[in-house]
Amino acid sequence: MTVQREYRLISADSHVNEPPDLWTSRVPAGLRDRAPRIEHFEEGDAWVIEGVADPINFGMNACAGLEPEDMKGWVRFEEIRRGGYDPAVRVAEMDRDGVDAEVLYPTPRLSQAIIANPDAAYREAMVRAYNDWLSEYVEYAPERFGGLAMLPSTGAEATVAEIDRVLDRPGMRGVVMGCYPNGTLSIESEDDKVWARLAERGVPLGIHVSLSLTMPAAHRAKLPGYGRFYDAPNRMIELVFAGVFDRFPDLDVVFAEVDFGWVPYAKEQIDNNYHRLEPLSRFGLQAPPSEYIERHFHFGFMTDTFGIHNRQYVGVERILWSNDYPHISADWPTSWRTIQAAFSGVPAAERRAILAGNAQRLYGFGR
Hints:
The protein is α/β, with parallel strands linked by helices. It has helices at residues 87-97, 108-116, 120-139, 156-166, 192-201, 232-241, 244-247, 263-281, 289-296, 305-309, 335-342, 348-363, and strands at residues 10-15, 37-40, 45-48, 101-105, 145-150, 172-176, 205-208, 253-256, 297-301, 319-321. α4 (156-166) links the parallel β5 (145-150) and β6 (172-176). It has an 8-stranded parallel sheet. A two-stranded antiparallel ribbon has the order 2-3. The protein has one domain: Metal-dependent hydrolases (TIM Barrel, Alpha-Beta Barrel), CATH 3.20.20.
């Protein structure tokens, strides 16, 4: 008799470390020379990607659990933890941290470079190769992994075709988009075909931090990553005011790695302007914008003590704990220690929802 797995801790935003030959071994021969690949440099290994001026190193995407003095951007691929590309090892890493399941996103700068490439045939081939590799990875333990199919953004028809091609595979549980399905940063009517298919399937639409058609570059900011939520309010407004949720009331959207302490302020300001301008502008919405935000959007966080203290203004059912493993933001292998400190005083039912229940519901773990 099969025993139903109990989920106590699900990370709604974890990552893979793509292997060096993921694309060169899978794309058609005519695109192989243009495919993302890892090359050796004096400082370490890095991804070389068409259209990207800088070699993209990956040390900070694979440094969880290291001592601070050992964390660095430039490393050799063989030096990083194997769980990023080996699912059997990943399960052991999860067990060590007490994590029951993880939703898996690609490395952001790799996926961004693919989606920002202007060649639609290139995008489609690279996305298919990634989705095939990821589906093989998560099939190793589909009860432990939630694979997110990358959307090709080569038009609604092609995007729906890719959804249908991969989402019935074991462990594939959602999608992630880097721009809108039509290939731009503006919602078009053709995108309705994609929203309809996702709503029909009950599959969440993921946005990791932001949408962008800008090629990535080497990190040059003094403090990368502190303003991850800046793009999210704009995308919420775009989707709400385009009437997407009036047409597709069953569509769920997950913003990964944006935290959520900012959400009550954003709802207040959006509603304030909406009520002031609605008599003149006649936006045509069926409800104030905050009601759509409360019904359709979910927010992934790693560390947000302020948000936890003010969770009632967001909605406990909207909040998704994440570990970001194996990136620098992860507390592996002591996630539970951090959780115990941050969730002091949070009632047990709310704690269960944020740590596992919400992700289990959205991504269908246990089904």
